[in-house]
Model the fold of this input.
Amino acid sequence: MSVDAKATAVEKSDLISVFIDGIEVQVPKGTLAIRAAEMIGIDIPRFCDHPLLDPVGACRQCMVEVPDMGNGRGMPKPQASCTLEVAPNMHIQTQVSSPVAEKAQKGMLEFLLINHPLDCPICDKGGECPLQNQSLSHGYGESRYDGVKRTFPKPVSVSAQVLLDRERCVLCARCTRFSEQISGDPFIALVERGALQQVGIYEDDPYDSYFSGNVIQICPVGALTSADYRFQARPFDLVSTPVTCEICSSGCQLRSDHRHYQVKRRLAGNAPEVNEEWNCDRGRFAFYSGRGADRLRTPLVRDSGVLRPASWPEAIDAAVAGLRAAAGNVGVLTGGRLTLENAYGYAKFARTVLGTNNIDFRSRAHSAEEADFLAHAVAGKRLGEGVTYADLERAASVVCVGFEPEEESPIVFLRLRKAARKNDLKVTVVAPYLSNGALKLGAELVPTAPGGEAQAVAALEAEGDTIVLLGERALDAPGTLSAAVALAERTGARLAWIPRRAGDRGAIEAGCLPNLLPGGRLVADAGARVDVGAAWGVASLPPSAGLDADAMLAAAARGSLSALVVGGVQPTDFADAVLAREAFEKAGFVLSLETRVSEVTERADVVLPVDLIEEQPGHFLNWEHREGRVNRVNKQAASPMTDLRALAMLADALGSDLGVRTAKAAKAEFDELGAWDGGRAAAPTTAAASAPAATGAGLVLASWRQLIDGSAANDGADALLATAKPVVARLSAATASGLGLTEGDDVTITAGGGQVSLPLFVEDSMVDGVVWIPGNRGGEGLGELRVTAGETVTVTGGAA
Done:
């Protein structure tokens, strides 16, 4: 018997027969009655039941009759089908065939409606409310209750962005189960008893979860509402569009609802392979940044030192003049907001129009070792060749290196927590302390001062069913990525690289690196250049690897790089923000393609306005290399002005044909080019550097960006920003004591580029001799200090 036949036989042996309303159905052992009914199209009303939450039987709405439990004996009373596991030959009667079940369901609805207010005309849930719908489909036509309904003052702020109307609550416990089982933030709970029972909060500890918006979405009534969306629109006034989130590399599928060409809300989509039915609050609420007065709507040209509005032809002519004067001595810097198609446009524009490999998407700290690692282990991989979300659930252990899942890829965090809770996944973090997210994963800490990650990884023991998750910060310690590759080769462990931004994975595949062409082709490989050149219709491509982002900035600052083309980049993104500003100021010519006024546009010679992500189509590639469709939500303009279209216009004016000017054409060309099947880059072999040591007030700096921080993408989302974690400096108790500091004191962190003052938080698990500060504080990053994690800074008491 073949392996497939054996598997099929085993699967069939796990099936049992049950009878629902007289219909026989075969289901796996352990199936809930409500799921078995769904398989044959029978809809049983419910409120507390949710397929991703543990069954609880709280609302008692899904009552069914069980005349035969499979042993010839029936159950004396109706049963909640959401907690009832079927048994072989069990007979179940739903409201379709049982007057008993029908009466029980109608009775439960009548009880729920006794104290439920008639808020439907003003309730945000009206028109998409399960209570409303099921009252009509399964309830009585008229109410027999004429007493006084229970009322509470409303709304209660569960957090800055979640509001609670207590009299609407049907006590289904979906919200409390989500916060406890899924996100691990049990800050809301059912309190009181009987008629007084309600959802309660800790007054001194608001529900500031990164995933709080999910409780609004799964609430089956209008009890939990969004502070942003409350009274903004009716569901039947909205136009819904499926989109892929543009925030991080998780690749969440969302539903974007708009009215009058303005997005009113975003909800988690149903994508079982990726985000299941959840998303983070930043992906849900951070969509306001393009609505401010700083939105760019017309080209700008610098005239006598001042930027002034210009027509598109005038701006294109000015840009062409500046780029021609540079004569190919140009650098191209791209950011994380770009779709795959736009990134592909920049990569092709750099090579075929400008004639340079000076292109880099890494507007952050980076290294040559990272470029080699990306070329060896990341670029050119297809979906399924690497680690997936499903693999994370099946793994025996996961090791996180330079990666904080909850902060840098929240859906990865949720999937790890699900696996840890249900499959006993062991999570290990190589980090200076156990973060809040790591604690919720029950993670084991490998205490490591920044700079010592390479030695820590080299000392790890792993099995073949171990997955090592490498964040983009793994490059901070030289040798870490090399050690991870060596660990995988030695033990059979699998590696996955998870960047922080949505566009980064696509930028690699598109060729936005100085050493890579599209599809993981090496610039140094003559065969790869011929392959791409033939597809692009050019005789040759530049044969030498170009400058990386840091080298371009340094060259521009000293005057040896004549021009910069910049798309979606902020100086504060870079490891040295001061150098970045100097480069944009001293470069002979700067062309900026941007959605909003920024520090780059203020220093640019020509500014071309491009559309927001909601105004254009395209794709993102998530960390798995899974494509996520970006559909055009706002169609107010006849056709979108994307980065790609602007680059095509520039190419035409420069006498070249970019060959693509729409997302559809770019995607078709990219797909036809495909991944490279030829030689790949060798594995990086960078030696581990000596970890820096703390001396007196000189401490080793640790840092990463928090999910909700001073990023420009969060602008305008005031309720979201109100839930951000406090901006503090973290020290161990021993280190704080040695400096004469106590929790709450102001401390000043000083480095070569400046200083910052923050309140002190004493972190119990922090490695001694290390200070942690967030990577972005109100729009200011580590680049303002001109220092990166792993370097030494001075910490003193008192504000600067």
Observations:
- The chain has 25 helices and 37 strands.
